[in-house]
Structure formats: C-alpha cells, structure tokens
Amino acid sequence: MSTGAGGKEPSIRRHARRENRQRGRLQTVNTEAIKEQQIRSREEREQKRARMDGRHEFLLSTIAERLGLTMDEAEDFMLDGDQLNAFDSFFAQGGRSALIFFYKETKPEEGTGGTKEKCLWVTDGTKDPYSGCCMFFVRPNSSKPITMLNIHQEVYFGMLDSNGEGLLGAIKGLLDLVFIPALERNEKWGDLSGIEAQQVKQQFLGKLSSFVGVLANAQASVADAVKLSRIENEKLLKLMTLSSSEILSSMNNQDIVVAAENIAMKWCHEIEQILTESEQMRKEADDVGPKAELDHWKKRLARFDSLTACVKSSECKTIVNILIGAKSKVLKCDSKNA
C-alpha cells in the first residue's frame, strides 16, 4: 500500500510541474504579445505624428491656448483613431468647410484622490452630444487648399462654451457678446450708404437681437421643463427593456406591481402639484407690455408640452399597462381625483 501511494505522489508532482511550465509559457507568450502590440501602437502614433505639419500646429496651438493645455497634450489627443483624416479633408481643395472639436473634463469621484480626466476629440457635431466646450475652425472658401501661406487669412476660429448653460446659452452668449457688438461697430454695409444703410443696419440688428431673446426664452423653457421622478426600482428598470409579452407575464409579481403603484402615485402627486402651480395668479408690474405676456404664455405652453411628453413616454405607458393588467386600485383612485 505504501509503495502504491508513493508511486502516485511522483506522478502528481510531475503533472503539477508540467502545468506550471505550460502556465509559464502562456504568460511569456501573453507578455510578448502585449509588448509587440505596444510597440506597434507607438510606431503607428509616430507615423501619424510625422504627418502633422505647421498647419496642424497652427490649429492645435490655438486650441491648446484656449483650453490651457500643452501642445503635446493637444497633439496626443489627435493621434487617437483616424482623427487626422478630418484635418486632411479640411486642408484639401474642395474639402470640408469646418473642423469641429469637443472638449470635456471629468472630475474624479470624491475621496478617490484622482485627477480630473481631460478629453479632446474631432467630431462632425451630429453624433456626439454637446457638453463642455466646442471649438471650431471654418473656411468660407473651400475652393482653395489651405497652406501655411494662407491659413492665417482663410481660416477663422470660434468657440462655444456652455458654462453649464447648454447649447442655447452658448449660442446666445456668442451672439450677444461677440457678433452683435462687432456688427454695431461695423461701418461698411456693402453697396448701401447714407440713411438707407443705417435703416438696413438697424433692422438687421433689431432682428438679430430679437433672435437672441428667442434663444433666452427657449433656454428658460428648457430649464423649466417638467421632469417626473425617475424609476429607480431595478425590477421595473429591467421591464423597460422587455417585450410586451414579457411585461404581461410579470404582472403576477406582487413586488413589481407594488413598485409600479408607488411610482405611479408619485407621478400623480407631481403632476397635480404642477397643475396647481399653473392656476396660481402671477404678479406683474403695471408697466409690463404685451411682450412679457407673450413670453409668459410661451413658457407655460413649453412646460405643458414637456409634461405631455413625459406622460406619453414609454416608461409611463409601461407602468400604466402593468397597473391595468394587475387591476390596480391606484388607477381607480387617480380617476376619481381627476
């Protein structure tokens, strides 16, 4: 018996040594693969860096100065992916007429001791949501290629900084603080001259100022938009991604029904409060004109439109369907209150 046991032990040790050798070889292969990938990545970035010339430096130095970045930081951001292709198109004859950059800073979580993350990237403005800061270069005449000799005359720079006010606030600020003051000081208005030029100028500036007012009202309407409480129950959140048949099968789950009733009653209370506030008398000064009255009703309409959108949302419809399928008493109570 002792001989048999002794015969098995060396076999086990040999098997363990064989596994250790195989594991070591795999780790070596993985380490070498990672090193090769890192080398290829560095080579690709250096090849991209070699494509950059004085035109890239001119644009990126402008961005780096505005954002407080170093030139190396701005260049490193552009080496990710195929962003340099956008530069090539912008510089080429007949290429794109605008080059748009988004910049965003993400603060670290409290207590982590980390530093804020910076991100700068090229975008076409149609897919990435606007947040933080937007910088853009435009060239009015795309029939000419952009060279180091003409880049100072052919390319114009602009910047939209939301400062927490969103896109509408950024556009309003750009018009109000940059374009309108510049136009007011402009003396040349094409072929027009004399009194006619002044009339056209005043009409145009008046309409532009009115548009700025529209942006301000739109921004206020967005800020005042109705937002019902978000669904936080995990079981209900999972239902939002399921099909109608799967939602119907979950109506027998009492926990889900109770959670749906709770959020429905919370929404009803919030809607009732909104309607009550809308019926309250507002106080206005005696010298308020019709424009203030019109702005008030525009804001009120926008507020009710946002409330209607909330009620028609897929989340709200799902909750109502759950309550209907479960024959919840909450619906009866709400109909009586209505």
From TrEMBL:
<dbReference type="GO" id="GO:0007018">
    <property type="term" value="P:microtubule-based movement"/>
</dbReference>
<dbReference type="InterPro" id="IPR026983">
    <property type="entry name" value="DHC"/>
</dbReference>
<feature type="region of interest" description="Disordered">
    <location>
        <begin position="1"/>
        <end position="51"/>
    </location>
</feature>
<dbReference type="InterPro" id="IPR013594">
    <property type="entry name" value="Dynein_heavy_tail"/>
</dbReference>
<dbReference type="GO" id="GO:0005858">
    <property type="term" value="C:axonemal dynein complex"/>
</dbReference>
<feature type="domain" description="Dynein heavy chain tail">
    <location>
        <begin position="260"/>
        <end position="332"/>
    </location>
</feature>
<feature type="compositionally biased region" description="Basic residues">
    <location>
        <begin position="13"/>
        <end position="24"/>
    </location>
</feature>
<feature type="compositionally biased region" description="Basic and acidic residues">
    <location>
        <begin position="33"/>
        <end position="51"/>
    </location>
</feature>
<dbReference type="Pfam" id="PF08385">
    <property type="entry name" value="DHC_N1"/>
</dbReference>
<protein>
    <recommendedName>
        <fullName>Dynein heavy chain tail domain-containing protein</fullName>
    </recommendedName>
</protein>
<dbReference type="GO" id="GO:0045505">
    <property type="term" value="F:dynein intermediate chain binding"/>
</dbReference>
<dbReference type="GO" id="GO:0051959">
    <property type="term" value="F:dynein light intermediate chain binding"/>
</dbReference>
